[in-house]
Specification:
This protein is mainly β. It contains one helix and 22 strands. It is about 0% helix and about 45% strand.
Length: about 280
């Protein structure tokens, strides 16, 4: 459809989230208010054929953090019920289906899609908690790659692990958004809390059909950011193309834009653009 979807929030409007749709011409065509409690911080948005996924998780506005002058005054709130909302892409927000989930937090989902039985699958990187001890997370068990099964009848979410090793910034072949898919690429994360996630890391490729995991370690002092998939053409099959992403060299404060064969990342980069500046980790 060419539509863009977003879930937005404002700290001064603690009882409301908004689902916003922008068409391919850049025009706002829908803005729907969603009732919530406690002022949750919603970092992610995902879609399926018929739903927008609403992540209402236990990181909420903190008056104590606000009074202390933090720029991001949100903290872990164990009293906030964690839940996933299945919001119809069209129609009334009164028809949203809220499904309870064990407390956790998600910055990034790889993809979500509907199953033949009416349930929804969400693949994401999930944290045990976030901002529980301050503004510099994560906290608790490091983030792993998970598959969630959302049952709209029982209104429950069950979680299984795809890979327990710490990782973040999952990406897919974006032509598969909202649909069943096979391939995901993720960047590894340190096993302990590191400020701003900056540490030596590796690139992972998950084949969700076979269960195979491939990896490539960038090297000593090299920090890879979020990688993006680019298809060879619009007609090729899923995952036929390249990954590209920025890799910081901490030793000389330089950066490389590295390119990989998406299905053979373990062979290392097939090309790079050398940039004589440090580009901060980003998206």
């Amino acid at each position: 459809t060419g539509e863009w979807h977003a879930i937005t929030y404002k700290s001064e409007e603690q009882n409301t989230l908004w689902h916003i749709v922008i068409n391919k011409d850049g025009e706002v065509v829908s803005e729907r208010a969603i009732a919530v409690k406690d002022g949750p911080s919603v970092h992610e948005c995902s879609i399926t054929e018929h739903y927008v996924i609403v992540f209402d998780l236990p990181v909420t506005i903190s008056l104590a953090a606000l009074v202390q002058g933090f720029n991001f005054p949100y903290r872990w709130n164990q009293n906030h019920q964690a839940r996933i909302g299945l919001l119809p892409r069209h129609g009334s927000v009164d028809h949203i289906i809220w499904c309870e989930i064990d407390p956790c937090y998600v910055f990034h989902a790889a993809n979500s899609f509907e199953n033949a039985d009416g349930s929804v699958t969400i693949d994401c990187c999930a944290y045990e908690s976030m901002f529980a001890h301050g503004s510099d997370g994560p906290n608790g068990v490091p983030c792993g790659f998970e598959r969630w099964h959302v049952d709209p009848v029982a209104r429950k979410v069950s979680r299984t692990s795809i890979d327990r090793s710490p990782q973040e910034f999952p990406r897919i072949d974006e032509r598969c958004f909202g649909q069943p898919y096979r391939h995901a690429w993720v960047v590894s994360q340190p096993g302990e809390t590191v400020s701003n996630f900056v540490a030596d890391n590796a690139l992972y490729h998950h084949d969700l059909k076979t269960g195979e995991k491939r990896s490539y370690r960038f090297g000593d002092g090299l920090v890879g950011g979020e990688f993006v998939f680019v298809p060879r053409s619009d007609q090729v099959s899923e995952a036929e193309g390249w990954l590209m992403g920025l890799v910081i060299d901490a030793s000389d404060q330089a950066t490389q834009l590295q390119f990989f064969d998406a299905l053979n990342i373990e062979q290392g980069p097939v090309g790079a653009v050398h940039i004589p500046h440090r580009i901060p980790p980003g998206f």
